Amino acid sequence: MTDDSAYRLERDALGSLPVPQDAYYGIYTARAKENFAAGGRPANPKLMHAIARVKQAAAKVNGRNHALPQKKVQAILAACEEILDGSLDAHLIVDAYQGGAGTSSNMNVNEVIANRAIELLGGSKGDYSIVHPIDDVNLHQSTNDVYPTALRIAVIPLLRQLAEELASLQEAFQAKEHEYADLLRLGRTQLMDALPILAGQSFGAYAKAAARDRWRLYKAEERLREINIGGTAVGTGMNAPLTYIYAIADELRELTGLGLCRSDFPMDGTQNMDVFVEVSGLLKAAAVNLLKISNDFRLLSSGPAGGIGEYILPAVQAGSSIMPGKVNPVIAEMLGSVAMRVIAGDTAVTLAAASGQLELNAFTPVLAEALLESLELLLHGIPLFRERCLSGLKLDEHRCREHVERSGVLAAATITYLGYDNAAALAKAAAASGRPLEQLLLEGGWMTLEQIQEVLHPLEVTKPGIPGRSGQSGAEHGRRLIPE
C-alpha cells in the first residue's frame, strides 16, 4: 500500500497526480518522468543550471519592473543559487531524451525553484499560491526563448575551456617537436616506406592541427553570444513587456560575464539551430585530427618486437589477462574512442537541427545532449591523453635509425647525382641485403665519404631543396650518419 503521507496531490489541466512529498519538482515533472524514460539519465546538469541562470535574470528584471513583489524575487533568487551550486541536482530529473522542445526541462527548473522558494517563504511544497512555477518563475518567458538561450550559456564556457585544452595540447606537441628535432626516422605514405623525416617534424604537424582546432573554436563563440531571450514563444515577444525584453539580455550578460547580446530578430534564434551545427562541426574537425593522431600513435608503437616499435608509450596498466607482459596503447585507444563518439554526436546534432519545422525545433533537447556530451568528452579526454600518453612518450632511437637504414629511402636524396634508375637500384639492393645505403654508395664508388656525409645528412634530407647543395658539410652540421 502507498503511504499517502509520503505524497502530495498536485493538479493540472490533465487531472491530478501524487508527487513525493520531499520532491521539489511538481506535477509537470512527475508526468515527464513517466513519459520520457528512454535515455535513463537526466538532462545535462550544465544545461539545467543555465536555465536557472535565465530564471535568476528574469526575476531580477521583473522585480525592478515591479512585475513581482520583492519577497518573491528574493526567494526565487535564493532558490536559483541553490540550483547553481548543485544543491538541488537530485530534483532535476527529466530525461535527456524528451519531446516538447525542452518544455519539460524548463518546467522542471520552474517547479524546483518555485517549491524551494515556497519553503524559504515559510510555506509547504505544492502551495503555488505563494510562488507559482509559471506565473512567477516563468513570468514573461517561454521555453522557446529560455532553452536556446540557456544552451548558449552552457556551451560558451565549455568552448572556452576546450580552446585552452587544445592550446595545452599544441604546446605539448611542440615540446616533443623540440625534444626530437634532430632524430631521423622513416616517413611513410600509404603505410609504405617513403622518405626520411625528422621525428620532431611529425610532432610539429600535430601541433599545427591542434592550433587550427583551437582557433576555429575560439572564433565560433561570436555566433553563440546572440540570444533570443525576450522573443517568448515564436520570437515575436508576445506577452513580454518592452521594459523586460530590452533589459533581460543585459541582465544575463552581467550575471554570466559572457558578452551576450539580444538578437535583433529573435525568431531566428527560436527556430534555427545552425549555430550549434557549426560548433558541432568544429568539434568533429578536432575529433578527426585526434582520431588520426590516436591511430598514428598506435601504429608507431605497435609490436614492439613484431611491429614498428618506434614510439614507446607510457605503460599505464597491464594489457591482458592471458598474455603475460603485454601492454596495450590504452590511452591512445581512449582518445580514439572519444573522437569516434564526438563524430557520431555531430550526426545527431545535424539531424536534430535539420528536423525543426516552421517556428520551432522540437528536437533541440537531443541536440543539446549530443553537443554538451561532445564538449565534455573532449574536455576530459584531451588532458588525459596529454598527461598520460604524450608527455611520457619516448622514441626508440636505435629502432628509428635501423628502419631508415634498412629501408633504402635515403636513395631518393641521390637522384640528382646518380639518376633515378641508379638510385632505385641502390635502394633495392639496400633493402634486399639489409646493408645501409651509405656502405653501398661507398663500396661501389658512387660517392666519396665526404659527399655521402653531405648529401645524406639528416638536416639535408628533411628540408626543401636538393640535398647536399645547402653550402654546409656534414661536419659543419655537427652530426654524421656513418663513421669515417
Write the layout of secondary structure elements.
Blueprint: E1 7-12, E2 15-20, H1 27-35, H2 45-64, H3 70-84, H4 103-120, H5 133-137, H6 143-179, E3 184-189, E4 192-198, H7 199-224, E5 226-227, H8 242-256, E6 261-262, H9 266-271, H10 274-300, E7 311-312, H11 330-354, H12 364-390, E8 394-395, H13 397-407, H14 415-418, H15 420-433, H16 437-443, H17 449-455, H18 458-461, H19 474-477
Parallel strand pairs: 5-6
Antiparallel strand pairs: 1-2, 3-4, 7-8
Task: Please name the defining characteristics of this protein.
about 475 residues, mainly alpha, Fumarase C, Chain B, domain 1, Fumarase C, Chain A, domain 2, Ribonucleotide Reductase Protein R1, domain 1, two-stranded antiparallel ribbon, two-stranded antiparallel sheet, disordered C terminus, lyase, coiled coil, Aspartate_Ammonia-Lyase, aspartate ammonia-lyase activity, Aspartate ammonia-lyase
What does this structure look like?
InterPro entries: Aspartate_Ammonia-Lyase, Fumarase/histidase_N, Fumarase_C_C, Fumarate_lyase_CS, Fumarate_lyase_fam, Fumarate_lyase_N, L-Aspartase-like. It holds the Pfam family Lyase_1. Residues 413-462 form the Fumarase C C-terminal domain. Residues 159-186 form a coiled coil. The protein has 19 helices and eight strands. It is mostly helical. A two-stranded antiparallel sheet has the order 1-2. Helix 8 (242-256) links the parallel strand 5 and strand 6.
